[in-house]
Amino acid sequence: MLIEVINLVKRYGDHIAVDNLSFTVDKGQILGFLGPNGAGKSTTMNIITGYISATEGSVKVNGLDVFEEPEEVKKMIGYLPEIPPLYPDMTVKEYLNFVADIKKVDRSKKKKMIENIMESTMIKNMENRLIKHLSKGYRQRVGLAQAIMGYPPLIILDEPTVGLDPKQIIEIRELIKKLAKNHTVILSSHIMQEVSAVCDTVLIIDKGKMVLIDKTENLSNRLGATGCIKLTVKGNRNKIMEAINKVSQITSIDEHGTEVNGVYDYTLYTDENVDIREDLFYAMSNAKCPILEMYSVKMSLEDIFLKVTGSNRSAIKPVEASDNNVFEEDSSVDLEEGQKSEEEVEVNEEENKDVSHI
Amino acid sequence: MLAIYKKELRSYFTSMIGFVFIAFFLVIIGIYFTIYNLLMGYANFEYTLSGITFIFVLLVPLLTMRLMAEENKQKTDQLLLTSPLSAFSIVMGKFLAVFSIFLIVMLIICTYPIIMMRYGTISTATSYASIFGFILLGGAYLAIGLFISSLTESQVVAAVISFIVFLFTILMESIANILPSDNKSAWVIFSVILLIICIIAYKMMNNLVVTIAIGVIGEAALTLAYKIKPTLFDGSVVKVFQWFSVTSRFDNFYFGTLDLSAIVYLISIIVVFLFLTTQSIKKKRWS
User: Fold this and answer.
1) Alpha-carbon distance values, A311 to A24, A206, A218, A348, B1 (Å)
2) Which residues, at least 6 apart from A178, have a Cβ–Cβ distance to it below 8 Å?
3) What whole-number distance in Å separates Cα of residue A286 and Cα of residue A239?
4) What is the ipTM of this complex?
5) Start-end of CATH 3.30.70.3100 domains in chain A
6) N or C: at which end does chain B have fewer Cβ atoms within 10 angstroms?
7) By CA distance, what is B72's nearest residue in A?
């Protein structure tokens, strides 16, 4: 066990930033720290790295307490804070040299290590540029290079892909995955896809409290099934309803009216693990009402996240993981919003059960 | 520590502040040197040095303002404080870097008495003793400046506060002289100072009980001492205020004596403020 966080509490006056947080991270794990803004992610990370102290509780890295032996613990941690700690007046190479020095990297290994790290973070072509002339994406990568310096066993990254373009995000994710082969990685994010793409364990925290911790794949299996099908059909309204009613096992139907003349949207609910898509297809086919779009809604990590943190849906635009293409939905987002909140209410009850048995 | 030292030193010369400081310092010393030693023909280099102690007020804030404040602002303190460096080695590295810049100026100045030697006999010992005193004086101001810089995130605030504090250390000599020296007003002034300390303590700790305890115990001790032995307070205000007059410690060097108490005083100022800076960095963890 590499990290052990026990009953961590951080208070700022009356405000509680971290509330009784406990978890452990094993060697070689990638732990995703998920939470809305202000959930206490950065505070927790700052405590683990020894930058600030906890009000109560303790953090142990490799069996050493952060408060009792800070220097030993700091040797084992590479940290990329929210704002990359860069000196704008240094060149990339000078900066990495400096970081290697303060992290007490062996002189003989230093040069080679800097070269290797610059290559793996793809900043080699920028080595002689001043950091103040770099773009946000490159700065982030230099920050990442700084965290990796010395190859510490534990790497902590606070929102590592913020401000990067999609191509860079994918590159950085690949890099993090590569790192995880030899290091333990904790990364925080409020982007769900990122966590589901990179991490093997997810810890969701909200208002300083841990909401749940589980393996990524268990999460979507356990909380992901909704038994909900979205349907867009062209034809006569009465005919469509008739056809739908012929299909058994549907528990309820939501009708969303029409956008284009003669095209209707529906959301159909069944029990979980029941597949009625085939029956629907034939029913519509017999009624001569062509199906334009049909997919079963699965809960993405994002939905699970919103569900367990109970965030306001209008604040974050819903994106659904579906069998279909996500882009097609954009036109009907407004309609879905209303429907989704209903779905959320239903789902919330389910979630309460889930959380209580964690 | 060496890494921090090298980094700071380099940043002084990449950002020009180092050159500006050295150049400006040398210009002012040059003017005084020319007037006192070359034109007026005094054989004492210490006159020049004691004439320019005010230069620290102007130039030291320029050098020290960015030391910690910039790290705080750019969040690079996060890098330093999460690295395996101790707070003290960070402070030491920074102090030695800024002290080295100052030493460059002092090394150049060491050649001035040699120039004077060409034109007659001078007192080499007092000249170099005064340069030594001047170096310590500079070190003390740099340490105070470093401490002030560690308290804030803004370089401008650090510079302004340093400027005011340094100005006070220079004016303190004259201020102390006009303060009352009788024991009753001394008791009143100390009580007021105690009150101010209590207010500051309350602001920092937010603990009313401790603050009142400090106030009551302190006031009781003061009053008791005053009742038992009022003569203890005679001239004490002046003494206390003079204690803060950093520059006046240089006076003995001006008169050509190597004053041990002044040397100890200046070195302890350096040590105390380096210690305070370390504490102020460590304190950040507990905020």
Assistant:
1) 26, 10, 22, 11, 47
2) A120
3) 10
4) 0.84
5) 221-356
6) C
7) A85
- Look up residue A105 and give its two tokens: 């990297």
The string of pLDDT tens digits covering residues B24-61 is: 999 999 999 999 888 888 888 888 888 888 889 999 99
Contact between B76 and B88 (Cβ < 8 Å): no
Does CATH place domain A3-218 in 3.30.2170.10?
no
CB-based contacts of B149, cutoff 8 Å, min separation 6:
B64, B65, B66, B67, B68, B69, B155, B158, B162
Q: Which of B75, B86, B287 sits opposite A83 (nearest CB)?
A: B75
Reading the block at residue A43, the tokens are: 């505070």
Task: Give residue-wise pLDDT tens across range B122-155.
Answer: 888 888 989 999 999 999 999 999 999 999 999 9
**Structural domain boundaries in chain B:** 2-178+242-286, 183-234
If you measure CA to CA, which chain A residue comes closest to B1?
A: A102
**Would the CB atoms of B15 and A89 count as touching at under 8 Å?**
yes
Best mutation target, B13, B78, B92, to test chain A (most A CBs within 10 A): B78
Neighboring chain A residues of B285 at a CB cutoff of 8 Å: 50-53
Query: Check: CATH 3.30.70.3100 for A221-356?
Result: yes
Give the residue from B4, B130, B119, B144 showing the smallest Cα distance to B61: B144
How confident is the model over B216-237, as pLDDT tens digits? 998 898 888 888 888 877 777 7
pLDDT of residue A272: 66
> Which one of B3, B82, B286 has the shortest CB-CB distance to A50?
B82
